[in-house]
């Protein structure tokens, strides 16, 4: 009974995050997918679902080995989530969205700079992968490799994955990654190519 309640609560939180991600401009139409660990393995949004129109029937429960246990057909990106959970046992949620500024700044060959306290505290560091087709083993494997060292990973010319020990933290990281990319973009427009959070302060970071 507890496992059922936990699954229901997890799906409800993912539904809320999906709607908010679209409102925040991090996803458009059926772009992006969300997942979280559950007792059986992980639950992931279904194939072709729109993040701002999710219902409880739009999710798939899968084992960590990749077997569909219940629900609808999973997102084509399910391997991206599966491989990340296999690589990072400390991570309980993956938010994969398509943030415009993060993808653009990376595609233009610029490093996304962490400028504010929130950027530095929540994002900390950013991994990148070369472009690989969506749903491919190559994309899933390269993203999982970057996830060993980073909680935010840019998937070049595609989107990003943000990881967290909770759904809330994964989503908070996705938001701060895009804000850091937007700040970097604006700084570049102003001719600034170097401003970022003081490196010496990273070791003492804390947040209320």
Detailed description of the structure:
The protein is an alpha+beta fold and 208 residues long. The chain has a single domain (2-204), classed as 3-Layer(aba) Sandwich (L-fuculose-1-phosphate Aldolase), CATH 3.40.225.10. The chain contains six helices and eight strands; from the N terminus they run αββββαβααβαββα. It has helices at residues 2-23, 78-87, 100-107, 117-123, 137-147, 167-189, and strands spanning 33-38, 41-45, 59-62, 68-71, 93-97, 126-129, 152-155, 159-164. The chain is globular.
Descriptive keywords:
L-fuculose-1-phosphate Aldolase, 6 helices, 8-stranded mixed sheet, 39% helix, alpha+beta, globular
Distance between the termini: 35 Å
- Unreliable residue stretches: none
How many helices in DSSP terms? 6
Q: Report Rg.
A: 17 Å
- What is the topology, as strand order, of the major beta sheet? 4-3-2-1-5-8-7-6
CATH topology: L-fuculose-1-phosphate Aldolase
> What shape does the CA trace take?
globular
Structural class: alpha+beta
Number of E strands: 8
Helix content: 25-40%
Main beta-sheet annotation: 8 strands, mixed
CATH class: Alpha Beta
Rounded mean pLDDT is 95
GO molecular function, one term: metal ion binding
GO cellular component, one term: cytosol
GO biological process, one term: pentose catabolic process
Keywords: Lyase, Metal-binding
């Amino acid at each position: 009974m507890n496992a059922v309640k936990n699954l229901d609560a997890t799906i409800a939180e993912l539904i809320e995050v999906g709607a908010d991600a679209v409102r925040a401009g991090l996803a458009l139409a059926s772009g992006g997918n969300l997942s979280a660990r559950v007792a059986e393995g992980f639950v992931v949004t279904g194939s072709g679902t729109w993040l701002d129109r999710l219902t409880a029937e739009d999710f798939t429960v899968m084992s960590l080995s990749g077997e569909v246990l219940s629900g609808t057909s999973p997102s084509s990106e399910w391997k991206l989530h599966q491989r990340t959970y296999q690589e990072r046992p400390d991570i309980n949620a993956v938010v994969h969205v398509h943030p415009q500024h993060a993808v653009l700044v990376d595609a233009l060959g610029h490093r996304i700079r962490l400028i504010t306290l929130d950027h530095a505290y929540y994002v900390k560091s950013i991994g990148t992968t070369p472009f690989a087709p969506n749903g491919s083993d190559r994309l899933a494997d390269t993203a999982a490799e970057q996830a060993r060292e980073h909680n935010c990973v840019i998937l070049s010319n595609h989107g990003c994955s943000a990881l967290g020990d909770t759904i809330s933290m994964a989503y908070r990281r996705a938001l701060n990654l895009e804000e850091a990319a937007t700040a970097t973009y604006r700084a570049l427009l102003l001719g600034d190519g170097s401003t970022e959070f003081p490196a010496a302060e990273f070791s003492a970071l804390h947040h209320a």
